[in-house]
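Fill in residues.
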């Protein structure tokens, strides 16, 4: 997707979980389009160049509140924080941890950012294809992403009167640091790839492009949606 380089010039963009993977790709894309981008998350020293980065653990009480208090206004909030613990999620402690990171922290960020968001601003959350069909080996992750879809719809309704749009993207099989191990296991990954109509794995930058679209004026009449970015996987 091609945009003018100054499309988001002067706009303040916050990306939680923006130090790696889809979040980092999103931060890079907004920065390239002229935005003032700040990311927060673990391993902030590994954040993309050209953005401000803050080390932050969303499980630490008060951490998000303190971080967001440092901004007078926010034009775009991207909630990219997320984690998967695979089969450990069947344990209560791990399930609760995944829900706290993937769902509760997103609601917290949206609630805390609300007073700083004005008419024309936008929130984009990260759902998943697992929001559609679940996952036997990661019940917490699937449940949290399904909840993100419904949270996005609820926030879209609540914030619409203030001119704030809230949408989500639902990535499919995207190459990220978390997924490289699976893709390297051809016995497990080849059948998955064969089902993707596009015939390949997705790139984090392609999800970032969808996020940029939803945050842009090109989507000014779009709110409450969860946009699949999956190469057609859900249609197959």
């Amino acid at each position: 997707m091609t945009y003018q380089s100054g499309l988001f010039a002067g706009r303040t963009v916050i990306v939680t979980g923006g130090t790696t993977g889809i979040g980092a790709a999103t931060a890079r894309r907004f920065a390239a389009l002229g935005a003032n981008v700040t990311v927060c998350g673990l391993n902030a020293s590994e954040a993309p160049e050209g953005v401000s980065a803050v080390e932050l653990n969303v499980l630490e009480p008060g951490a998000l509140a303190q971080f967001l208090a440092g901004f007078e206004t926010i034009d775009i909030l991207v909630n990219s924080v997320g984690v998967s613990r695979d089969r450990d999620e069947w344990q209560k402690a791990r399930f609760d941890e995944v829900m706290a990171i993937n769902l509760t922290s997103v609601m917290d960020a949206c609630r805390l950012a609300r007073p700083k968001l004005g008419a024309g601003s936008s929130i984009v959350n990260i759902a998943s294809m697992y929001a559609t069909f679940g996952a036997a080996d990661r019940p917490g992750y699937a449940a949290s992403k399904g909840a993100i879809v419904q949270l996005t719809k609820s926030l879209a309704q609540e914030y619409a009167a203030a001119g704030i749009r809230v949408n989500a993207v639902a990535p499919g099989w995207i190459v990220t640091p978390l997924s490289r191990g699976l893709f390297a296991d051809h016995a497990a990954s080849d059948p998955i790839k064969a089902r993707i109509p596009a015939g390949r794995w997705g790139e984090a930058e392609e999800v970032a492009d969808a996020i940029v679209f939803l945050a842009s004026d090109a989507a000014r009449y779009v709110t409450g949606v969860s946009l699949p970015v999956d190469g057609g996987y859900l249609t197959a």
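The chain has one domain: 12-173+203-235.
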